[in-house]
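Hello everyone,

My group is preparing for a crystallization screen and wants a predicted model to guide construct design. The compound we'll soak is zinc ion. Before spending weeks at the bench, it would help to have a computed complex in hand. I've included the protein sequence and the ligand's SMILES below. Output in structure-token form would be ideal because that's what our pipeline reads.
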Amino acid sequence: MDEKGQGTLEYAIILALVAIVAIAALSYLGSQLRNIFYSLTEVLLSNCESVTKSIYNYGGTLPPGALTGTGKFMWPTKGRITQKSWHCHHAVDIANSEGTPIYAADSGHVVVAGWKKGGYGKVVIVNHGNGFQTLYSHLSVIRVSVGQSVAKGQRVGLMGNTGHSAGSHLHFEVRQSSQLCDPLEFVSP
Ligand SMILES: [Zn+2]
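Reply:
Good plan to model first. Here are the tokens for the complex, ready for your pipeline.
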């Protein structure tokens, strides 16, 4: 290869590297902007601090052998974290495609299974019988009913985009007594 050819080759390699770095930077920036957009939409639509902090109870009789929590949570689905817990959002958002299975983070019984006002859309709340409740919202499909026992890791529904949501994701809350906790203090992916 002559000197001119060598120079052109080097130039082409440098150009390709610059292009790869630029594409990587843009796609990273794009996903960060998308996360910010999803997060802001959910928070703005739901009004900061307006979330209900109630503890839900099941009025009926629990079936014999109703399950209670093990005290250790498991990560409830597969996906990337798009929003953590902060002043206006006491939950963690995990995004993935619609239909991704959502699992009970611990054993317990279902106290809410249906559409809930306040932006949650289709939501499931599991009472673990040990002071903890976990909430799974924006679901596309609910697979459990109120009063039913669920084992840790049992599928409670499918990920979706119902309620105040700008994209398919799970909004996951951990409640201890009537306190909304930071889920990441109890469980990590
Ligand atoms: Zn959320």
